Hints:
With 293 residues, chain B is mostly helical. Chain B has helices at 2-12, 17-41, 44-47, 73-108, 110-125, 128-138, 142-153, 156-171, 173-180, 185-221, 233-245, 250-277, 289-292. In chain C, 29% of the residues lie in helices and 20% in strands.
Amino acid sequence: MNSWWGRLMMKRLCRLVWLLPLTAVLLFTLVSLAPIDPVQAYVGARMSMIGPEQQAAIEAAWGLDQPGWIRFFHWLAHLVQGDLGDSISYNAPVLTVLVERFPASLALMGCSFLAAFVVGSGLGVLAAACQGRWPDRLIRGWAMVISVSPGFWIALLFISIFAVQLAWLPSCCALPPGVTQDEAHWWQYGRHLVLPVLTLSIYGTGPLILHVRQRLIGFLDGPSARHLRLHGMSSTRLALGPGSRHALGSAVTVHLASIGELFGGSVLAETIFAWPGLGQATVKAATGADAPLLLGIALVTVVVVLLGNLLADILAAWVDPRLRIMPQEETLPRLKRLPWLKASARLKTASRLKVEPKS
Amino acid sequence: MKRVMVSIVSIVTRSDDTGKSYRLALFMAIVVTLMIWGGGALPDTMMAVNPAQRSLAPSWQHWLGTDLLGRDMASRTLAGLAQSLKVGLLAAALSTLLAMVMGMMAALNRSLDRLVSSLTDMMLGMPHFVLLIMVAYAFGGGTVGVTWAVALTHWPRLARLLRHEAKTLVKSDYVQVSRSLGRSNLWLARHHLMPHLMPQWIAGFVVIFPHAILHEAGLSFIGLGIEPHLPSIGVMLANSLNAMLAGFWWVVLAPGLGLMLVAFGFERLGERLRRQALPPDRGSSGVSPGQVA
Amino acid sequence: MIFLLVFHTLVFSYWVFHIQSLVDAALGMRNVGERDSASGIDWVIQGVRGLSLMRLRRPLMALFSMALLCSVGFSAASVQARSLVLAIQGEPETGFDPIMGWGRYGHPLFQSTLLRFDPQMNLQGDLATSWVLSDDRLVWRITLRDDAVFSDGTPLTAEDVVFTFNTARDADGLADVKALKQARVVNDHTVELVLNKPRITFLNELVSLGIVPKATYGQGYARHPVGSGPFQMVEWREGAQLVVKPNPYWYGQSIPFERVTFVFGGEQTGLTLARTGQAQMVAVPPAQADQPPEGMHLLSVKSVDNRGIAFPVVPAEGQTTVSGAPIGNRVTADRAIRVAVNQGLDRDALVQLALNGHGRPALGPVDGLPWNNPQAHQVSYDPDAARKTLNAAGWVDQDGDGIRERDGVKARFKLYYAAADSTRQALALGAAQQLALIGIQVEPVGASWNEIKHYMHQSPVVMGWGALSAGEMRNLYSGATAGQGYFNTGFYQNAEVDQHMAQAEAAASYEDSLAQWQAAQWDGHTGFGVKGDAPWAWMVNLQHTYWVSDCLETGPLQIHPHGHGFPITHDLPSWRWTCEP
């Protein structure tokens, strides 16, 4: 645990210790506040065939006849044992539902994450390299436009163009109808992935383009770039070589920190494309008053986002050694060190990350 | 009165950056007023179901075509935007108010400060949309649910910023003097903090606003937002899926484009105000959307 | 912008091509279990490393892979001969466990039931060869066929039936078998079901409860069902599709399809599949049903999926329910108002307005079912008759504001409807317009069910029911269910109606019970029909609309219950394919 990433992990673990319980309490409070009657949501249209006796039995089986705080401790006790409870709308343990649906979401989000990074940073570099000329303006305009357009609307436009008008790509599902997983070819997966991933990734590129562009311009205007240019390095090579390295390190951080947004986008994308993943389950849980499943999904996404942030920090420090917490700082007296270290680290990070002013 | 008018005119007609901001702000304010007023005052006949005019392509009579039930898309879009703007305004106002209260509480009381900052941390650590869904669910969905959902999830960044500002203010001499004169925290907040935090507060409001309407549309789209019998962009887009698959593209184009234009206008305005009123963010000043909202 | 779109597509398709291993690992985790989860992170890292200089060579590669993707995509014919794809929604998210409620509507596919209704609603044996009710109406003695075999090859015996019924009685799912006292084995092929009290509607359980194997029923059953029905499961990808194939052990006729696929997802999924010719049957919303694509035709199925107005029939005297909801309405407590509403509703116009013409007027709660009594609900659109009814009862417009009044009470009420349901909204608004013509002022109020729950004993509400069991009718009109849940919201009570329904429940057979059910609606001097107390004003019965391939012959269809979609599978095993494969 002496390495820099070990220290980082320790710090984050401490954060988890207070953050997770607080989150759990908040989330549980939220779902217990809901005025929706889960029994009614469960029974739905069959209300006429389910007598009052049976309804009472269902209520008792879910423990809904007990006060909120007792239910909370029940839930907590099970949670500690790794049991997230049973999903009402799927009639299966929440964990099973999550495990069942995670792969599809992972494929969708993973591809979108990578695609967004590649395209976003690529366009950012391009914009910075052509600063002020038409590609730059075009790309900046594009980034602005997509950051204010609703993601689900973009999805609808894509379906309209590629699936309905041109009929190139399927607009729904993960596989063609009638094909089982065993019979499916990889390209069938690929074809069905294209539109959802396109939608989801476009949404994530906006901030990334602007960020990379800003960082790269900052570098190109800086003294080191001026120095290299004087030595005869062409602008293109400058932008693609050392410039990209400078910009992409922090781009990774920015991008990883947006994992939460990605999940939000996937809820909408999965609804539109009938993608059998977690997003679909989220909507089902929320509209079907399935509190245990909603809680489970929320907790899992919180953990994923925290992991994403941790990964972002580790990657950032890995790319840029200056961001690591150096071992010699460890030798300072413990009591005084903590506040001082925090402040100084923040200062240093700040000064290093700061964009050099344009001359 | 005359002096006020003159100063407004002089500000609006200035040719520098500030003048541009004010012109944009005035323009957006007019747009919003017109929409809320116009959207609410549309005659019912324009929005009534009309089986004889189903799925008509855009024409002179129906500028943006009609939907599957024969309703005029232009009127529906306008009414939907009005609904979205109302919810967005209310939610953004609540949200910024919450941020203001939180920020000032944190600055004036140390134990509250810890509470506020850990709450802020927690809210920022959670995926935004999931939190929105949870809060909307907690309020049982509907217009009330979506308003609260947006209001209760968009305050943390602004609160963090206002807290920082307010803390600097509290340390300044005149606040310290007031405090030693025995002024209560409430008095300090009212007379010293609030006036100084106003510009940031207004900028925060404008920056949050486009997010509020976009998220409202998203929630309505998945069925947790505005009830389907009210016109709203999210619901219209959700219903347009079927029509679009039959090739009626205009049903999708109009509402989305309208929403995007309004959001874009406010985004630009927010960007300008933010540059003037809020301190620059470190590292990534170009990244506008996620910064304050 | 278009340039960027194309650029995005190209670069992206390159990625699709190359991250296949990740997709495989992710989507096929069950099969490709040996891949470790680190591969995702590897890709991130490699992606970052490879970014800086390799970019320029990639568009070419991407172009190539894009072309490849498209070409292989077009040559794919996914529908094999004689396999059927149905996009009729209604995925049972809770799985295929009859004990938890699977198979209530439509065919349970995997399991078989003791009895079944034929398309004309006559009772037939399925697993049962004879079913006899004891003289005290408490014990059903059921003889089972001896050739029923589960799809895993084990024979179905009396043990399995007894196990299924006893487990369902104790389970907390959507199969309400609480009327059962106990099921017991008589011999290998005979069982006895003992009831708590006489209840002929228990037949509904014999019709809908699929029999599960005692030996293998357990935790995972809902997702891997085994039964003695016509089909067995091939694969269920939750949220996406269910694939089934004929069960070789089934005792029924041979099924002409190698495979039947149910595609889930929203309405738009079905519409897309229909337009691309990938599905042979699709459930479509009525608003869009009129233009089926090439090669398909519209199938509009009658149903008892009804919508009507439930009136509070007791006057407001300050009483409330346990939860504090006020009871009673002084306007609708008058029978004349309720009858006038029934006479003043132009139901044909409502069908056009709210259902795009895909429906039929509803006069009673069970139109077209064997236990319906058409005499009880004789009413037609007649505003003059409605005005006469109101005048005779003393409701007259004295102040000329268009609204009638009596003893200072205006003839007006709020009409609640579920705001999320556009059909109900259209019905409420339409009804309000029509009733204004006869001097009754109706104020439609859209609300959530939680709000409606509070006001439904005080104000009329637009409700929808429609089960294929007379038990539902009993729940809606019995004095015993007054104020219980959504059943009898208006606190309607008529001792004679209750008496008839109790006699119906105590009937010796299904056929014998029908006369008593009909008498409850109108027995010559009272009943709950419009002729009698008229506690409801029924408006419309929905018609469920489907697009069906011209090659698919579904035969006669059973009248549909509440719920668009799955009920159409009721006679799926007897469907035929009429074209060459």
